[in-house]
Design a protein that fits this description.
- Helices cover 0% and strands 53% of the residues.
- It is globular, with a radius of gyration of 13 Å.
- The strands form two sheets. Strands 2, 4, 5, 6, 9, 10 and 11 form a seven-stranded mixed β-sheet that branches. The chain has a four-stranded antiparallel β-sheet with strand order 1-3-8-7, with no helix packed on it.
- The chain has 116 residues and is mainly β.
- The chain has strands at 3-7, 10-12, 18-25, 34-39, 46-51, 58-60, 68-73, 78-83, 92-100, 103-106, 110-114.
- The termini are far apart.
- The chain contains no helices and eleven strands.
């Protein structure tokens, strides 16, 4: 069965950096585009970035463009989100997402807290 497991979250000061990982299993990872989302308390889940199955194409929300980088290692079946210049408003639970036909799969999320 499909499993997505995020890791790498934690606490960081404003201006800091962090890299999130999403380990994927149970499907042919290299065949599917993948996405990162986040959800802050009291807010809707927000799409941050998407990457094509080969990694050759990426797209970002305006809120993170130029600060966050999505990437993937198909050999390791892992999705990454490199986050730089972090701001307090980046505080949220971060999720990776797979859309497979009509099915949608989410990881359990990893908490990122940006605070001084």
């Amino acid at each position: 069965q499909v499993q997505l497991v995020e890791s790498g979250g934690g606490a960081v000061q404003p201006g800091g950096s962090m890299r999130l990982s999403c380990a994927a299993s149970g499907f042919f990872f290299s065949r599917y585009a993948m996405s990162w989302y986040r959800q802050a308390p009291g807010k809707a889940r927000e799409l941050l970035a998407t990457i094509s199955n080969t990694g050759s194409n990426t797209d970002y929300a305006d809120s993170v463009k130029g600060r966050f980088t999505i990437s993937r290692d198909n050999a390791k079946q892992t999705l990454y989100l490199e986050m730089n210049s972090l701001k307090p408003e980046d505080t949220a639970v971060y999720y990776c997402k797979l859309t497979q036909g009509f099915s949608v799969y989410w990881g359990q999320g990893t908490q990122v807290t940006v605070s001084s």
